[in-house]
Write a structure and sequence with these properties.
It is a single chain. This protein is α/β, with parallel strands linked by helices and 160 residues long. 38% of the residues lie in helices and 18% in strands. It contains six helices and five strands, in the order H-E-E-H-E-H-E-H-H-E-H. The chain has helices spanning 4-20, 55-67, 85-93, 105-114, 129-135, 149-153, and strands at 27-32, 35-41, 76-81, 98-103, 142-144. A five-stranded mixed beta sheet has the order 2-1-3-4-5, sandwiched between helices. Helix 3 packs parallel to helix 5. It starts with a helix and ends in a 7-residue tail after the last helix. It binds zinc ion. Residues 54, 56, 83-84, 86-87 line the site of zinc ion (ZN). Zinc ion (ZN) is lined by residues 54, 56, 83-84, 86-87.
Length: 160
């Protein structure tokens, strides 16, 4: 069985690297056959890209390029935080097998509430990754939420 904690810790490293250059503290990985195929970073601010700048999209695109194929069957997407509806949909279109994440959408919303008087500008769409996957027709995705959640929450405190 794949060591989910080990790979989630790797997404935290990517999140920290993203934060170090001033982007949001998110990170993702694609793992196939227990091997890291790609590392996804958050690029929103540094590349002025609010769409492809999401770490999960970055990881999926890089894995497709590395493997030379559009579909990532049997592969796992690891994310430091629950994927947004766009990234969850991307995992569905790429036929990813399993999605594993640390902090939940609710954790992020709670954090947004705590920081709403500052210049914290995260936005959320109120659809969970599981809701997206349940509505997918023709491909099923397994999910493992909440891996190292308390450690994951510490990423919210990184300055960006
Ligand atoms: Zn996203």
């Amino acid at each position: 069985m794949q060591d989910h904690k080990k790979f989630i810790r790797e997404t935290f490293k990517n999140a920290k690297e993203s934060a170090d250059r001033g982007d949001y503290p998110h990170g993702a990985l694609i793992v196939c056959d227990d091997k890291i195929i790609s590392r996804g970073y958050e690029w929103l601010k540094s590349k002025n890209d609010a769409v492809n700048g999401h770490a999960e999209i970055d990881a999926i695109r890089k894995a497709q390029k590395t493997l030379g194929q559009p579909y990532l069957k049997g592969c796992t997407l690891y994310s430091a935080a629950e994927p947004c509806p766009m990234c969850a949909s991307a995992a569905f279109w790429a036929k990813i097998d399993t999605v594993v994440w640390s902090t939940s959408r609710e954790d992020m919303i709670e954090e947004m509430d705590k920081k709403k008087d500052g210049n914290f500008s995260w936005r959320q769409i109120a659809i969970s990754a599981d809701e997206i996957f349940k509505k997918g027709i023709g491909h099923e995705i397994k999910t493992i939420p909440g891996v190292l959640r308390e450690e994951g929450k510490k990423l919210f405190d990184l300055p960006t």
